[in-house]
Amino acid sequence: MKIVETNAAPNPRRVRIFLAEKGIEVPYEQFALNIENIRSDQFASLNPMRQVPILVLDDGECICETMAICRYFEELQPEPRLFGGTALEKARIEMWNRRAELGLFFAVAQAFRHLHPKMSEREVPQVADWGVANKSKAIERLGLLDQRLHETEFVAGDSYSVADITTLVAVDFMAAARIDRPEEFGGVVRWYEEVSTRPSAGA
């Protein structure tokens, strides 16, 4: 078993943090995300979407998509439960993780992919107006999470979960996308100080 990843990319970091919280060790194989490698048939044979991370099982089967990989390890080692234990916890974590992923994380990624010069070969065509529009969308989504974090200790409630991992990585990704985090978002500031100092955050 191994995980094919690119250390600097945000989605592999989500998996590394998740596994660090679980105390699970898996070998990592670094993959350079240059155009030649991305377009190679070998990479496509691992993941036709040509994205990392990729969990390669001992029999050669590949599990792709960040949340699919995390769910696989949650089933193998349930504790600590990062997807929740009860039906309500699971539903609440799923709800807030999707809001963080499809709202904040997606908007930040779109701003990065459509505005960063180094992404011009991968994001074809780059649409600058779309990138700029997603900067404001990211702030709007972060504001929604800020409201939530004035009410709860963590994104999905009283316990740290995969929703916090997604949100943490998205907030850190804002720097690469050149989106300033509003200091008036006191809930986010309080929460970030707590989750960013967890040992797993450096994974």
Strand content: 5-15%
Give the number of helices. 8
Principal-axes shape call: globular
- Strand arrangement in the largest pleated sheet: 2-1-3-4
How many strands appear in the DSSP assignment? 4
Determine the CATH topology of the largest domain.
Answer: Glutathione S-transferase Yfyf (Class Pi), Chain A, domain 2
- CATH architectural grouping of the largest domain: Up-down Bundle
What does the radius of gyration come to? 17 Å
Low-pLDDT segments, ≥5 res: none
| Average pLDDT taken over every residue | 97
The first-level CATH class of the largest domain is given as: Mainly Alpha
Helix content: 40-55%
Please, how many domains?
Answer: 2
End-to-end gap: 19 Å
Tell me the major beta sheet. 4 strands, mixed
Q: What sequence of helices (H) and strands (E) makes up the elements? A: EHEHHEEHHHHH
Indicate the structural class: alpha+beta
